[in-house]
Amino acid sequence: MQNYGNRTLTLVRGEGNYVWDDAGRRYLDALSGVAVCGLGHCHPAVTEAIEQQANTLLHTSNLYNLPPQEKLAEKLVALSGMDNVFFSNSGAEANEAAIKLARRLGNERGFAVPKIVVTEGAFHGRTLATLTATGNPKVQIGFAPLTEGFLRVPYNDVAAIEKLAAEHNDIVAILVEPVQGEGGIRIPDADYLPRLRALCDQQDWFLMLDEIQTANGRTGKMFAYQHFGDLLPDVVTTAKGLGNGVPIGACLARGKAAELFTAGSHGSTFGGNPLACSAGLAVMETLESHWLLERAEKLGSDLLAQLKSELEGCAQVKDVRGLGLLVGIELDRPCAELVDQARAEGLLINVTAGNVVRLLPPLTLTDDECRQIATTVARLVRNFAPQDA
Ligand SMILES: *Cc1c(COP(=O)(O)O)cnc(C)c1O
């Protein structure tokens, strides 16, 4: 189908922080398959886990206990402070599980159409419920009717939600990204999540965090909410970096939210499959044993510092921002051409929200590669003439 447009690059191999095209050209990958291959390509620990599991047992369904699933669930629960896990095959499905938990709470409370508060600029996926939760008309146009039960407010605006709380008595949850990824690497005020937590406590709502892009070490913590001390969500979703390229998603829940799915109320044929869970376990263990969270934090601050200094005074640059290895450069106009310009220099980057250069390199980057990304991107951005030049 035509949904991915006209693709002009054919990648055939990857190793570490590099990928190669069908003509044998090498590219430094500053995108990691959109925040998926955080350990770089074909990481030996993940490859070994996949090989071993493929030789042992690929699939049995969720009618039986699955040791790899249980081990990964225990690991995620220990790392997150949550109580239990539902496994899916993708990010959108993990968010569907979160939305269904909120609906169950609302149904239990007798609300005809329980409401979930979502934000402008959010990205939550492409299924019907998650594209409704997404705050970007481009994702929604042509797919009416959308799903009922979502209320939208500006991102980083607690007062707007307090206002909703006064107007509606059937709200059950807030669903929000700790940093908006697709929306343009938008980082909220430091007190945003803590204030949302307090509001959810006060109103008896679930705080549901979409960490599909921000978890798995991307921001320098296993989960981005861990930048805020002992703050815990009621529900948190992860996917992208969890399998380093093997499709897997997870919806983690705590307290009341952890009890709402009863036998038969939700499921997935492939979710929690032994292959995906073995890969996920290898990813989590590698992130921990190689100190990659600390490394992501250091690399991220180096990358941000170099970009800021090289782009200082650049008229077309509106902002340079980031958290760990989730870095964005906001320009004063659309800049999709930069993707091709970087590619011509052997560097893969991305532009999101039209005018934000997005860098999501592997956490396994060397210092040299980190400097190389900053140097190349800063030069390309500097040469991208300002709007009114
Ligand atoms: C990518 C992403 C999703 C959707 O994940 P899929 O695996 O593509 O379904 C949802 N939320 C956020 C924040 C994402 O970055």
From TrEMBL:
<comment type="pathway">
    <text>Amino-acid biosynthesis; L-arginine biosynthesis; N(2)-acetyl-L-ornithine from L-glutamate: step 4/4.</text>
</comment>
<keyword id="KW-0663">Pyridoxal phosphate</keyword>
<keyword id="KW-0028">Amino-acid biosynthesis</keyword>
<keyword id="KW-0808">Transferase</keyword>
<dbReference type="InterPro" id="IPR050103">
    <property type="entry name" value="Class-III_PLP-dep_AT"/>
</dbReference>
<comment type="subunit">
    <text>Homodimer.</text>
</comment>
<dbReference type="InterPro" id="IPR015421">
    <property type="entry name" value="PyrdxlP-dep_Trfase_major"/>
</dbReference>
<dbReference type="InterPro" id="IPR049704">
    <property type="entry name" value="Aminotrans_3_PPA_site"/>
</dbReference>
<dbReference type="InterPro" id="IPR015424">
    <property type="entry name" value="PyrdxlP-dep_Trfase"/>
</dbReference>
<protein>
    <recommendedName>
        <fullName>Acetylornithine aminotransferase</fullName>
        <ecNumber>2.6.1.11</ecNumber>
    </recommendedName>
</protein>
<feature type="binding site">
    <location>
        <position position="123"/>
    </location>
    <ligand>
        <name>pyridoxal 5'-phosphate</name>
    </ligand>
</feature>
<comment type="similarity">
    <text>Belongs to the class-III pyridoxal-phosphate-dependent aminotransferase family. ArgD subfamily.</text>
</comment>
<dbReference type="Pfam" id="PF00202">
    <property type="entry name" value="Aminotran_3"/>
</dbReference>
<feature type="binding site">
    <location>
        <position position="268"/>
    </location>
    <ligand>
        <name>N(2)-acetyl-L-ornithine</name>
    </ligand>
</feature>
<keyword id="KW-0963">Cytoplasm</keyword>
<feature type="binding site">
    <location>
        <position position="269"/>
    </location>
    <ligand>
        <name>pyridoxal 5'-phosphate</name>
    </ligand>
</feature>
<dbReference type="InterPro" id="IPR015422">
    <property type="entry name" value="PyrdxlP-dep_Trfase_small"/>
</dbReference>
<feature type="binding site">
    <location>
        <begin position="91"/>
        <end position="92"/>
    </location>
    <ligand>
        <name>pyridoxal 5'-phosphate</name>
    </ligand>
</feature>
<feature type="binding site">
    <location>
        <position position="126"/>
    </location>
    <ligand>
        <name>N(2)-acetyl-L-ornithine</name>
    </ligand>
</feature>
<feature type="modified residue" description="N6-(pyridoxal phosphate)lysine">
    <location>
        <position position="240"/>
    </location>
</feature>
<dbReference type="GO" id="GO:0008483">
    <property type="term" value="F:transaminase activity"/>
</dbReference>
<keyword id="KW-0055">Arginine biosynthesis</keyword>
<dbReference type="InterPro" id="IPR005814">
    <property type="entry name" value="Aminotrans_3"/>
</dbReference>
<dbReference type="InterPro" id="IPR004636">
    <property type="entry name" value="AcOrn/SuccOrn_fam"/>
</dbReference>
<feature type="binding site">
    <location>
        <begin position="210"/>
        <end position="213"/>
    </location>
    <ligand>
        <name>pyridoxal 5'-phosphate</name>
    </ligand>
</feature>
<keyword id="KW-0032">Aminotransferase</keyword>
